[in-house]
Amino acid sequence: MGSLNYFCQQAINALQLGSIYALIALGYSMVYGVLSMINFAHGDVFMLGAFFCLLLVALVPVPFWLALIIVMGSTALLGTLIERFAYRPLRKAPRVSAIITALGCGLVIQNVTLGFSPYARRMPSLLDITTYQFGGLSISTLQILIIGISLSLMVLLDYLIRRTPFGMAMRAISFDRATVPLLGVPANTVITITFAVGAALGGAAGLLYGLAYPVISPTMGIAVGWKAFVAAVIGGIGNMRGAVLGAFLLGGVEVITVTLLPSTYRDLVVYSLLLVILVFKPYGLLGKPPLQKV
Amino acid sequence: MKNRLLTPALLLAGLAISAILPATGLVNDYLQFVLVSLAINAILCVSLNLVNGWMGEFSVGHAGFMALGAYASALLTVRLFPGAPPWLIFPLAIVTGGSVAGLAGLPVGFLSFKTRGDYLAIITLAFLMIVKSGLENIPFTGGPRGLLGIPHFTNLPWAYFCCVVAFWGVRNLVYSKFGRGISAIREDEVAAESMGVDTRSAKLAAFVTSAFFAGVAGALFAHQLQFINPSSFDILKSTEMLVMVYLGGVASLGGSLLGAGVVTVLTQILQPLGTWRMVVLPLMLVLLMLFRPSGIMGYSDWSWLKPRSERNPKPKPEPKR
Do B289 and A101 touch (CB under 8 A)? Predict the structure, then answer.
């Protein structure tokens, strides 16, 4: 009984962490899908999601749902601004330039936030949290909410990508970026919306992460956001289902690591796992190698 | 014949000046510190330039190679042979630091056979994170608190000497027949391979040489600051190197020197800004990519830095009518 209980408890923790990773990883994967570009700044958009929420709650007391919507809206705006002013001018440049710019943008965001708030902050709780007991197993409303919101956002995204004209355009562009714009698909609009949706998911993840682990710091864009990126790569970057799979896998691995080893080994295990998977499956678990034309 | 001896003579004179200069009292300790930092940055810049510039791949993991060099050399002088005479132990420490980093460059080089571009960047990133996190978890290296009490061995002549060796080594590599394969990989890997370039050896050579010199720079860095901890070698350190490379100029020796110079001076000038100074370098990187992606003197070099056979002036283009 005891060990089974412990296992279930850890499984819930893994599910919670995994669903937050999944929300961030989807943003990385969507952008990679349409632009074949690693948006390193996405981790810092996630971080800003948490800080926007902190700022908002400090200014006006807003209920949870309103805070979620405002945070998602503001990070979406930020995502489109980054795309418009930093990435779009480089659309035709070598791909390395785009990655470096993304890396630079992320570090600018991180260090500006560090300039305003050099220390870690405590996130206020926006909700009354009650904890339910199921025969020794405890699950809080917060955990249910986090997993629920993440899963419903993922279902919504899946609907958006598979069933709407926008989703069709997005899939078409990631299939062939050269031809599809010639057929009358407004590529720039689609790319802008992709960035907005990805950043909104990242912002939501930031808020949820702040509620689940209430100490937030400006460096968590790298500490947490980049792990979500690892999840996206493990699943096969550019592949939405791969991102979700990788995120839950990574959440599980991380929870297992922390129960077996000191928590400082977390990064070591996560990044070693990434290397091992890339050695055996160079394009991730569900990814396909790009066609190479000679 | 007179010409042929000029460069070695000038370099030797430079070494002599760097040895005498501190004794004359013309440069104070602070200026000396800046000059040594300049030399270390120049080594880092030319080493990263070999991979990012000449080979056209993208490494963000050079802070990891630097960390390995710094730790390996510092462990040698602090833990294994404390109190050994500097003239004996310091060269050994530098070579050890470079070799350990160079060995670590091997697996990254092997991984670069199959993966290119974005995925290689991810691999170097993972490498950096693993090195940093590994160092934090080994008690022997001082864990997250770092290694203290490293003797102050790095002085101006040593820094100057290592810098000259790094530039000389990289120059001779990239202008050699074998090393031109490295640039061929940048232009078109498939074409290079079909023309008979041994791309695998070229990639390995580039990664190992580059990692070796990054390790040498790390050894100098450790014995200059006398204190290292894992978080001195984070992604921001790699960013600093990237700024140097892309500011000075990709695939350029002179550009490496220039980039290192500008960044060294900037970091000193911006010191009063505190945390905000960290914003400047990444912002510069973004602006550079947007407005001048190959840097000040990308793909070109000052003729005195080139081998003699490369110096003949280009034929002037016909004036357009």
Answer: yes
Whose tokens are 């003699």? That residue is B308
d(CA B121, CA B112): 10
Q: For residue B292, what is the nearest residue in chain A, using CA coordinates?
A: A97
Whether the predicted pLDDT of A69 surpasses 90: yes
First to last CA, chain B: 43
Task: Establish if B163 belongs to a structural domain.
Answer: yes
Q: Are A45 and A86 in contact (CB under 8 A)?
A: no
* B280 assigned to some structural domain: no
Task: Report chain A's mean pLDDT, rounded to a whole number.
Answer: 90
User: What pLDDT shows up at residue B25?
Assistant: 76
A264 Cβ under 8 Å from any chain B Cβ: yes
Domain count, chain B: 1
Of B133, B235, B289, the CB nearest to A271: B133
Judge contact between A159 and A153, C-beta under 8 A.
Answer: no
* pLDDT exceeds 70 at position A286: yes
B-proximal residues of A, 19-48, CB under 8 Å: 36-38
Residue A243 burial (CB count, 10 A): 33
B274 in a structural domain: no
Q: What would the pLDDT profile of B127-156 be if each residue is shown by its tens digit?
A: 999 999 999 998 888 888 899 889 999 999
Start-end of H helices in chain B? 2-24, 29-49, 62-75, 86-114, 117-137, 156-174, 180-187, 189-194, 199-225, 235-248, 253-269, 277-291
Chain B residues with beta carbon closer than 8 angstroms to that of A86: 286, 290
Which class for B55: exposed (0-12), middle (13-18), buried (19 or more C-beta within 10 A)? buried
Structural domains present in chain A: 2-280 (1.10.3470)
Q: How far apart are CA A247 and CA B3, in angstroms?
A: 63
Hey, of A32, A85, A103, which one would you mutate to test binding to chain B, going by the most B CBs within 10 A of its CB?
A103
Contact A268 B56 (CB under 8 A): no
B211 in a domain, yes or no? yes
* ipTM for this prediction: 0.88
Radius of gyration of chain A (CA): 19
Domain residue limits at B127: 27-233
Give A100's contacts in chain B (Cβ within 8 Å): 58, 242, 246, 285, 289
pLDDT at B320 > cutoff 70: no
Q: For the purposes of burial, counting CB atoms within 10 Å of the CB of A242, is it exposed (0-12), middle (13-18) or buried (19 or more)? A: buried
What single string gives the DSSP state of each residue in A251-265? Answer: HHHHHHHHHHS-GGG
